[in-house]
Write a structure and sequence with these properties.
With 182 residues, this protein is an all-alpha fold. It contains 8 helices and no strands. Keywords: Disulfide bond, Signal.
Length: 182
């Protein structure tokens, strides 16, 4: 009975590895749905292709034609949704942190609200294929949410929004690259 135990451990380890890596190897995103190869092809030209494919790809079923403009629209829509999630996280985090950090989070919420406005302006510009205005609006969006870090640095406190800001920065960079491809 002793020799069976190491085999069982090995089998369990292999099963865990396949469970974690097989979906990625098959090109499946976080939601488990297969990645659209056309979206993945366009996303491969962005600075953060995995982020692009996993976030923009969720919106592929809404488009009849998958081209650079469609993927730009998908990525901007995903970017907008992630900013909304960041604002929800601000509200949740503000209840559990010290007052100095809470004040900094209020500032972040204002910056995220500004980001939502500029993303809306970028979406309207993209509708009219005005990529120049779209790029400017996306750059302004980056400046807005990057400002969130400033009050935490000044207070020498950790920023509970750091993960969101990193993801938003990657998505924004993808959006700007995609806008250059239209």
């Amino acid at each position: 009975m002793g020799p069976a135990h190491p085999r069982l451990v090995l089998l369990a380890a292999v099963a865990l590895l396949f469970a974690g890596f097989l979906p990625q190897a098959l090109g499946r995103g976080k939601g488990g749905a297969p990645a659209n190869p056309l979206v993945a092809g366009v996303c491969s030209k962005t600075p953060f292709p995995d982020v692009c494919t996993s976030t923009a790809g969720r919106h592929a079923s809404k488009y009849k034609v998958i081209d650079n403009l469609a993927v730009l629209n998908m990525q901007v829509e995903a970017f907008s949704k992630r900013v909304a999630q960041a604002r929800k996280h601000v509200a949740k985090s503000a209840r559990t942190i010290p007052p100095a950090q809470s004040q900094a989070l209020t500032f972040c919420d204002t910056m995220y609200m500004n980001t939502q406005d500029t993303i809306g302006a970028a979406q309207r510009a993209i509708t009219f294929k005005d990529t120049g205005t779209a790029k400017i609006m996306l750059q302004l969006a980056v400046q807005d949410f990057e400002s969130c870090d400033r009050p935490f640095i000044q207070a020498n406190a950790p920023n509970p929004m750091g993960k969101f800001d990193k993801e938003l920065n990657q998505m924004a960079n993808n959006c700007m690259t995609l806008a250059n491809m239209v």
